[in-house]
Amino acid sequence: MKVLITGASGFIGKNLRFFLEEKGGHELFLIDRDNAEAELNEALSAADFIFHLAGINRPRSESEFKEGNTDLTQKIVDRLSELGKNTPILVTSSIHADGETAYGKSKAGAEEAVLTHGEKTGAPVFVYRLPNVFGKWCRPNYNSVVATFCHNVVNGLPLTINDSEAKITLVYIDDVCEAFCAHLDSQRCSGYQTIETQYPTTVGEIAGLLDKFKESRETLIVENVGQGLERALYSTYLSYFSPEQFSYTVPSYSDPRGTFCELLKTKDAGQVSFFTAHPGITRGGHYHHTKNEKFLVIKGIAKFKFQHIVTGEYREQTVTGDDYCVVETVPGWTHDVTNIGEEELIVMLWANEIFDREKPDTFAKVIE
After folding, report:
1. How many degrees, rounded to 5, is the angle at CA 222 between CA 219 and CA 226?
2. Roughly what angle, to the nearest 10 degrees, separates helices 203-219 and 228-238?
3. How many alpha carbons lie under 13 Å from residue 78 in its C-beta half-sphere?
């Protein structure tokens, strides 16, 4: 399918381009403000589907709102009519289109141009009144509070917050692109459309989460970044890193036995660490009442020993780095691990709770 994207160099346009390329099977016509009108007309003549994303939201004068939003859209649909084409067209509008600002009126005018064109020609038209879109590649200090906050937090700049309780509805760029791409393969009804996944939040909540993301490199405690707003916001925050910020060091503790290093901690799923042991060294020699640990030998040869603290029942198991075998501790069993190889032993460790020095649930007991 031949697909035209206007505003292709903008925030949404750049992301949509890659979504379409990844899906494959499309020839893309990418048009932005640097292209001549003749290039736009040629693309309109060829296109089987049009994503009209181009628009003006930060003009030098108010008259540019109408020129860049209403008039450009009218020019596009007029050209399609001249060509006798009923090409499906999706246009991005704004939640401000029902307002009285010059920007809102210009977006409402663009909507009317597309909807009227659809009624006259039977062309499928899809209008998205988008709330605040956020995600990678959104320009800071422009028209997105999320982009500006991410940029400032990453670079140690202060945040300007007039009202932390101010409400804001967000939609994530990946969800926007997925919704847009779905129109290429479906027969949706024309008219107004919505992004299903929306995140109602506040300016203060966004700022608070971003502060926690930044602190996590010091505390090692990560937020619940695997789903929902936290997932999308965390990915957006990371996208503002410069290459020099891609890495950071974590604390490590060394003694004659080897090294212990914590990698990360979670609020509700424990923490991940690793330790090393020199040849002949034994680590552990304790039991837990509740805590669980999972060990994975990455390198070397380890002998794990277990003994029930009441019955004295004994168990041992030898594991190498080639076994990919997880060994678990069991409450009420004292345990230790010995490096019985000739090279350094490296063991990955997950515990189901963050270590609490005030209540460690770790009690020394040597296996007899």
Report:
1. 175
2. 70
3. 7
Alpha-carbon distance 281 to 261, whole Å? 17
Distance in angstroms (rounded) separating the CA atoms of residues 133 and 145? 10
Domain boundaries, the chain: 2-130, 134-169+199-247, 252-364
Helices (H), the chain: 11-23, 37-46, 63-65, 72-83, 102-121, 145-154, 173-182, 203-219, 228-238
- CATH topology match: 2-130 vs 134-169+199-247: yes
> What number of other Cβ atoms are within 10 A of residue 200's Cβ?
11
Q: Report angle CA 25, 26, 27 to the nearest 5 degrees.
A: 135
Task: Indicate which residues carry an active-site annotation.
Answer: 103
* Cα atoms found within 13 Å of the Cα of residue 248, Cβ hemisphere only: 15
Give the HSE-up count for residue 18: Cα atoms under 13 Å, Cβ half-sphere: 11
| Domain spanning 2-130: CATH 3.40.50.720 | yes
Domain 134-169+199-247 fold is Rossmann fold (3.40.50)
Per-residue pLDDT of the chain (368 residues; tens, 9 = 90+): 999 999 999 999 999 999 999 999 999 999 999 999 999 999 999 999 999 999 887 777 888 888 889 999 999 999 999 999 999 999 999 999 999 999 999 999 999 999 999 999 999 999 999 999 999 999 999 989 999 999 999 999 999 999 999 999 999 999 999 999 999 987 778 999 999 999 999 999 999 999 999 999 999 999 999 999 999 999 999 999 999 999 999 999 999 999 999 999 999 999 999 999 999 999 999 999 999 999 999 999 999 999 999 999 999 999 999 999 999 999 999 999 999 999 999 999 999 999 999 999 999 999 98
CATH architecture, domain 252-364: Sandwich (2.60)
d(CA 92, CA 350): 46
Cα angle: 311, vertex 315, 320; to 5 degrees? 160
